[in-house]
Q: What sequence folds into this?
């Protein structure tokens, strides 16, 4: 069941919707925001709290139609929608979180929002998400001390980042939640514990449900053998490797284009799954070494997520560790689910390898091969 779901979602990366990112700072007597988002999903009414692939939504046809519009044709719709969506809920209490639309409070009072500019990318490849930038602002009263952002239900995740002050705020806000009070003068840097806890769900979310390629790789490791020792060796090598490159990439010491990394990640899935077919569960010394090498690639894939989200400079290490812990928890969850669905019931049966492990590996290899061709040639 798990594998069939992944196969049906094999092209999900083309329609995957990531977190919205909003940067704000004080400029020319106002609090100015620049929000980068997949606005088609919002206008179409896609529930981003429950889906990460627009194809899984009953609003996918509407989304695809909007995605095909040129910036000139789409801009009036975006402006009309944004005028109603930004700053709604002026009578709501800060922290309640309006069900529809984004709310902003200054000193505990909801304030109106002015839409300043809409920047829409060209159509390009209509199968890929398009980033739209909304520039908007709110008035800055003389006694303004704190700001609070209410992020609506159904909007997915928001990364909120402050600029232009010392110790700026960086927050990860789920749909239906609030940023809490953020000091406009700075000093809202998260504690080490807060940063760690905030980035654990970011890492977990990148595995479940968004990391289909990483899920398939981990399942390839799982279906190699029912012996726990073999699984521990493989997962340990993978974990150590992707931790190394994730840290190096986050520090800016390593940078490799996604156009190179993504096909290689797909190739790693194929290799691991095909090897499962002839290795017969015998863990040769070189398999963990190869998995370590593949783990270095996957770490670069994880790093691309952090490049979008950013890490708080003052709590870089705790946030990085939190993200990595979230990734590990996601991987362990994948293994636990696979174990409960297969090996727990049938692992000791003589036909387990022929009827479950090998067919699953063939399926994993087929999906990985499709992704490789798609990422290189399509």
A:
């Amino acid at each position: 069941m798990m594998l069939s779901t992944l196969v049906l979602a094999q092209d999900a990366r083309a329609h995957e919707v990531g977190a919205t990112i909003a940067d704000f700072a004080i400029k020319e007597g106002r609090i100015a925001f620049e929000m980068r988002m997949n606005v088609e999903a919002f206008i179409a009414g896609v529930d981003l709290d429950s889906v990460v692939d627009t194809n899984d939504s009953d609003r996918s046809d509407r989304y695809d139609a909007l995605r095909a519009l040129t910036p000139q044709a789409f801009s009036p719709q975006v402006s009309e929608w944004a005028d109603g969506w930004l700053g709604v809920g002026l009578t709501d209490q800060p922290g309640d979180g309006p069900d529809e639309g984004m709310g902003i409070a200054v000193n505990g009072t909801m304030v109106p929002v002015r839409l300043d500019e809409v920047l829409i990318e060209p159509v390009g490849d209509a199968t890929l998400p398009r980033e739209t930038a909304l520039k908007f602002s709110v008035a800055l009263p003389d006694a303004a001390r704190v700001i609070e952002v209410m992020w609506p239900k159904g909007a997915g995740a928001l990364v909120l980042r402050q600029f232009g002050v010392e110790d700026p705020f960086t927050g990860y806000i789920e749909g239906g939640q609030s940023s809490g009070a953020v000091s406009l003068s700075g000093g809202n840097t998260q504690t080490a514990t807060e940063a760690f806890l905030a980035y654990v769900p970011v890492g977990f979310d990148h595995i479940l449900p968004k990391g289909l390629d990483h899920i398939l790789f981990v399942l390839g490791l799982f279906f190699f053998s029912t012996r726990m020792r073999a699984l521990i060796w493989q997962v340990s090598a993978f974990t150590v490797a992707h931790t190394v490159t994730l840290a190096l990439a986050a520090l800016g010491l390593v940078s490799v284009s996604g156009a190179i990394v993504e096909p290689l990640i797909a190739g790693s899935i194929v290799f691991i799954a095909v090897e499962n077919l002839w290795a017969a569960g015998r863990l040769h010394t070189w398999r963990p070494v190869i998995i370590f090498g593949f783990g270095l690639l996957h770490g670069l894939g994880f790093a691309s997520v952090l490049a979008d989200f950013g890490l708080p400079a003052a709590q870089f290490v705790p946030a990085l560790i939190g993200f990595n812990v979230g990734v590990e928890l996601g991987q362990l969850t994948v293994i636990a689910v696979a174990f409960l669905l297969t090996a727990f019931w049938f692992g000791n049966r003589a036909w387990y390898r022929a009827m479950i492990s090998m067919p699953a590996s063939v399926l994993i290899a087929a999906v990985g091969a499709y992704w490789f061709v798609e990422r290189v040639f399509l």
Remarks:
- Residues 168 and 243 are 27 Å apart (CA to CA).
- The chain is about 50% helix and 15% strand.
- The mean pLDDT is 88.
- The longest helix spans residues 316-346.
